[in-house]
Amino acid sequence: MTLANRITLFRLAVVPVFCAMVHLCTPDRPGLRHLALALYVAAAVSDALDGYVARRFGQVSALGRRLDPLADKLLVNLGLVFMAGNPAFEPAVPLWFPAAVLARDVLIVLGAWLVNELYGPVRVRPRPSGKITTAVQMTTMTVLLLGFPWSVWLIWGTVLCSVWSLGDYLLFGWTQVNEKEGP
Asked: Which residue ranges of the chain lie beneath pLDDT 50?
């Protein structure tokens, strides 16, 4: 197993511990929030590190191409689910926010599956809009964990990025369908 994949597996292993810390956070136990933040930052840094190591040392693999986005999605989506409605987080993370972020991911996966079923194999690869959206989501998570009052604006920015990248992925899928059908 490559070093890059081991770094990604570390991030996957952090997810349940991070979620437990977020879930157990209460206003009278700020230490858990700080621990959750430290775990999250370590996981976010590992996201950049595994990609760098994979490219720099020729360790890009099929396993890494699948595990890396899975680790990102689990970290962000589950983290948001556990933060939403938790009174320890001020400003409050609205319940609709993780639903919106999850909806984007579900629609992209369903769209790829549908194109694959109806038109044959589909090329699934990261898009620049998806990478930007993931970076914005991770930044928003960090700011929410820090409790900055202006984080509400980042929530809206994250939703806009999510809608933009969803549209980009759908357009990419539609382009593939048109290529398969021909003129």
From this structure: none
